Amino acid sequence: MQIKLTSVFVNDQEKALKFYTDVLGFTKKYDFAGGGNYRWLTVVSPEEPEGVQLVLEASEGFNPAAKTYQQAIYQSGIPAANFFVASVEQEFERLKKLGVTFTKEPTKTTGSTIAMLNDSCGNLIQITHLDW
Question: Distance between CA 70 and CA 119 in Å, rounded?
Fold first, then answer.
């Protein structure tokens, strides 16, 4: 069994594509219409172009619970995704210079350093560096 796809619901797919590629540095993998207003949109890490794809899934239109779910986890302060980085402090500085809003600055926790940012598309995203 392998993990090949995971999703985050976004309130604006075009805005999400720009944020996840231009700001976070992911690479667009697939982008095509699937009928009606449906759009299949995925990004991957440039470090693993054949790795796990992140589906930037519209939170309105096809899944009636998606918008409610997205808003509830955001309001609860729960990240929709967690990305590992080589250095949380360096990513924090790089992303701050690009205008990214952080809801948690780099924080040392048991076994890791974390920070949390707003993806501007309805989600909180955590970045993590494990100490081991």
Answer: 12
Q: Is the domain covering 5-130 a CATH 3.10.180.10 domain? A: yes
- Judge contact between 110 and 102, C-beta under 8 A: no
Q: Locate the domains of the chain by residue range.
A: 5-130
Question: Please, what is the Cα angle at 70 between 119 and 54, to 5 degrees?
Answer: 60
Percent of all residues in the chain with a pLDDT value above 70, rounded to a whole number:
100
In this prediction the pTM is: 0.93
pLDDT in tens, 39-58: 999 999 999 999 999 999 99
Tokens of 2: 């392998």
What is the 3 state secondary structure string of 50-85?
Answer: CCCEEEEEECCCCCCCHHHHHHHHHHCCCCCEEEEC
